[in-house]
Amino acid sequence: MKANDKRILRICRKLGIKSTIRYANNGCTRQAKNPQYIAENILDRQFSAQAPNEKWLTDVTEFHYYVGLEKHKVYLSAILDLYDRRIVSYIIGDSNNNELVFRTFDEAIQANPDAHPLFHSDRGFQYTNRAFHKKLESVGMIQSMSRIAKCIDNGPMEGFWGILKRERYYGRHFTGREALVSMIEEYIAYYNGRRLQRNLGIMTPMEKHESYLHVA
């Protein structure tokens, strides 16, 4: 069904439907005090790509859940493809550590063994680790990093965090780890396979991805 944006807005106002509040994103990046490897910002905010697996972005974000009054955290590490905006891989863990990021990268490579994208991240301690840089080199990837305190350098990845949290996390109170993890897993499946995006030509990330493969 086709409808003009203004018509949708009028209907929403009439029914009292409002969007979720966008909270400030404080992130959870732990900048490396003594980085072992720093890469230039090769991506340079060029947030478009001509094909899948040409440019990947990555980051880690945190979520909270409660057991009684006690607050706990889980961390989500993900890799996003700039061509079709699909989530290539993700790992959910209880610690924001090297293993979380390394496993995310390993899963992405396992699913895309012939991929050699430009790999962009912020300057978090996991990404400035020399061992991580060697992992990138071993599969023929070039590393790129955001400048210090320039979140917009990794804008689409930050944007995905905002979409996920506004649509499924903000305004909810999770009282167990299982419910929170299920929400994240279900949302990423929905985002990749069912959530239409205007900048993809009213397609889902996977539809955009598969349309390229079909033409190729």
Mean pLDDT: 93
The largest beta-sheet arranges its strands as 3-2-1-4-5
What oligomeric state do the depicted chains represent? Answer: single chain
Termini, distance in Å? 30 Å
- Round the Cα radius of gyration to an integer and report it: 18 Å
Using the 3D structure, state the CATH architecture: 2-Layer Sandwich
Largest sheet: 5 strands, mixed
| SSE topology string | HEEEHEHEHHH
List the helices and strands and how they pair.
Blueprint: H1 5-15, E1 55-67, E2 70-81, E3 87-93, H2 98-111, E4 118-121, H3 130-138, E5 142-145, H4 155-169, H5 177-193, H6 205-215
Task: Spell out the key features of this protein.
5 strands; alpha/beta; 19% strand; 6 helices; 216 residues; Nucleotidyltransferase, domain 5
Please describe what this structure looks like.
The structure is a single chain. The protein has helices at residues 5-15, 98-111, 130-138, 155-169, 177-193, 205-215, and strands at residues 55-67, 70-81, 87-93, 118-121, 142-145. It has 216 residues and is α/β, with parallel strands linked by helices. It has one domain (5-215): Ribonuclease H-like superfamily/Ribonuclease H (Nucleotidyltransferase, domain 5, 2-Layer Sandwich), CATH 3.30.420. Strand 2 (70-81) and strand 3 form a beta hairpin. The model has no long low-confidence stretch (mean pLDDT 93).
